[in-house]
Amino acid sequence: MKKDKKIIITIDGWSSCGKSTLAKQLAKELDYLYIDSGAMYRAVTLYFLRNHIDWTKPKAVDEALKNIVLDFAYNAQSGHNEIYLNEENVEYLIRDLVIAEKVSDVAAIKAVRGFAVAQQQEMGKKKGIVMDGRDIGTVVFPKAELKIFMTADQAVRVERRFKELYAKNPNITIEEVRDNLEMRDYIDSHREISPLRQAEDAIVLDNSNLTMKQQLDVALKWVKEKIDKKK
Q: Is residue 91 part of a domain?
């Protein structure tokens, strides 16, 4: 695909709606770069927890961010771009429930969002990227050609998240997962800085009853329509 025909695709939405799954599918199908913005915030959270950073203190946050370098590198074994924190692959460490319980708090910090957004915008300058998160279509790339807002029934989301976490931690309960999801939804949509909201020009994709292939087919149709408009 010619460079001038490449577009920026943003995927925003609630936790455990399958944003990352769709983003990875699209990136692979289109030969685009996939950037997991949530992984960036999770990696910052991991750094803060490891180094006992008090993120309620702005000065401590500013100093800590100076020591954080985030990068993505392709892992041929997994077939995905994985996140590195100060040259350490932390892709799997950041998926822990301990990180999930704190990431919304960390991501709500103005300095942290500014740090991450600046890196994300730099990555998007060449276009041909798919990025998912909470504020990608509203804040990071407000002029993106295709914005998708994903949603699904809460019960479906809880079940998906439970299956994902149970594989790593058989002691987890579905009640813990539900509580965590509800807490994250509230924090994400009520935070002062870049709250989760649907961009006015975003297309809603409710995948409660869609298979992964069906949601990919729908999204690819939208991509084709946007690229055709650039001709």
A: yes
> Domain of 198?
7-217
Residue at 117 is within a domain: yes
CATH of the domain at 35: 3.40.50.300
Q: How far apart are CA 28 and CA 49, in angstroms?
A: 33
- H-type helices in the chain, by residue range? 19-30, 37-50, 58-65, 97-107, 110-123, 154-166, 174-190, 212-229
Collect all residues with Cβ–Cβ distance below 8 Å to 59 and sequence separation of at least 6. none
End-to-end CA distance of the chain: 12
pLDDT at 1 over 60: no
- Claim: this prediction has a pTM higher than 0.85: no
| Model pLDDT for residues 64-114, shown as the tens digit of each residue | 999 999 988 888 888 778 999 999 999 999 998 899 999 989 998 999 999
Residues 57/65, Cβ–Cβ less than 8 Å: no
Q: State whether residue 40 is helix, strand or coil.
A: helix
pLDDT tens sequence across 121-153: 988 888 999 999 888 999 999 999 999 999 999
The total of structural domains in the chain comes to 1
Q: Is residue 81 part of a domain?
A: yes
Q: Region 23-40: what's the mean pLDDT? A: 91
| Cβ neighbours, 10 Å, residue 142 | 13
Report the distance separating Cα 223 and Cα 231, nearest Å. 13
